[in-house]
Design brief:
185 residues, 9-stranded mixed beta sheet, 2 helices, 9 strands
């Protein structure tokens, strides 16, 4: 429930959740959009504006590593956060205005944690998440309450279907003086 002023959109209320990385969450409706029917470019532009506004107006903290205390992106939702057997739809806009083809594993993890924290779902209630761009589905459920540093947290299970898109082979030559890598000072 963090109030953020987003240029060209005004004040919106976002939730910040962590599921391996930090995301801002809000319903697309707050931005005058519909996550299921608005043009993807409009959703991307709005989500990117939210990401930039959050970065400027709110400092994130990670309980173990400040290197992880950054906002990776914004996930616009259909606003259907309370438990339901029906899928809830979202679009994840991350990094440099990239759009995930899936509902996003780390995003589903963070969204489940938020829903649990807000009392909208209980442990072991499975939610289905749909990508607004491709229609692909993931499921997620909070399976155990715990603590992470000083924060209340949950362990989340996420599942979905994935496909190989490529393979790589790395070769290390014995005479390579940098074969074990290097560090910048």
């Amino acid at each position: 429930d963090l109030a953020i002023d987003v240029p060209d959109h005004g004040k919106v209320v976002v939730d910040i959740g962590y599921g391996g990385t930090f995301y801002a969450f809000l319903s697309a409706e707050q931005l005058g959009l519909d996550v299921c029917s608005s043009k993807t470019r409009d959703l991307v532009n709005a989500a990117s504006a939210v990401t930039e506004a959050v970065k400027k107006q709110f400092k994130l903290h990670h309980p173990e590593s400040e290197d992880l205390a950054f906002l990776y992106g914004t996930i616009l939702t259909d606003g259907k956060d309370a438990f339901s057997e029906e899928p809830t739809t979202n679009i994840c806009v991350f990094a440099d205005e990239q759009v995930d083809r899936s509902p996003t594993g780390s995003g589903v993890t963070a969204r489940i944690a938020l829903q649990y924290h807000k009392g909208l779902i209980q442990l072991n209630q499975t939610r289905t998440f749909r990508s607004s761009t491709t229609g692909s589905l993931f499921t997620g459920k909070a399976v155990k309450a715990t603590k992470f540093g000083d924060y209340n947290a949950v362990i989340v299970e996420v599942s979905g279907e994935a496909f190989y898109t490529g393979t790589a082979t790395f070769t290390v030559e014995e005479e390579d003086p940098l074969k074990h890598g290097f560090l910048f000072k």
